[in-house]
Design a protein that fits this description.
This protein is of the alpha/beta class and 222 residues long. It is built from 9 helices and 8 strands. It binds 2'-deoxycytidine-5'-monophosphate.
Length: 222
Amino acid sequence: MSINVAIDGPAGAGKSTIAKLVAKEMGFIYVDTGAMYRAIALYLLRKNISIDDNEAIEKYCGEAKVSIKYEDGVQVVLLNGENVNGLIRTQEVGNMASASSTNGKVRALLLDLQRNLAKENDVVMDGRDIGTNILPDAQCKIYLTASSRVRAERRYLELTEKGIECDLDTIEKEIIERDERDMNREIAPLKQASDAVYLDTSDMNIDEVKTKIMEIVKSSTK
Ligand code: DC
């Protein structure tokens, strides 16, 4: 049976950074489910569908065929066969992903892909509903969070390091809006699974988080 580590939490909590480190250390594959929702969001944006047009989202999302492959251990997301890794990390795509992922049809498109990956491989999978919905039997579940200010500061640093101009208060506002949508949607909302370990990283640095998470992962997968 494959070993599954599920890491859930709000936007900007550091899930992907940590999940990648854990996957490398454990020799597992890293599955970034947010990237899959982002690929569908990119398709919808390219169709000029607006974030609140749920009817159009429902109508067109099925045209977005998402698959993944690994190149040198890195997840590559394919949208109708096109590598979209370089196009899905914008704030605009993130906001559209948050909005369109409230739609049940969008979620259903990705369910089997995610479950099959975890069935066939040892995985560290991160997202919003992995421990609660996608992999309820995962051997290890972690709920990773931090205050909205700290998450905004981390994103701000990330963007300014890439030379992208941005405003901290605007980023925090968008993070709070995203939390609101992700946590309060009807289908598979973001919440801590009852058997997940809760970790607030607001006052921790990356090394401390990694050490703590590795302890949790090792003790629950041995
Ligand atoms: O983790 P991320 O920022 O790349 O995710 C983008 C959006 O996708 C997020 O705001 C909500 C949605 N998402 C989801 O609904 N379920 C997941 N398992 C992962 C992401």
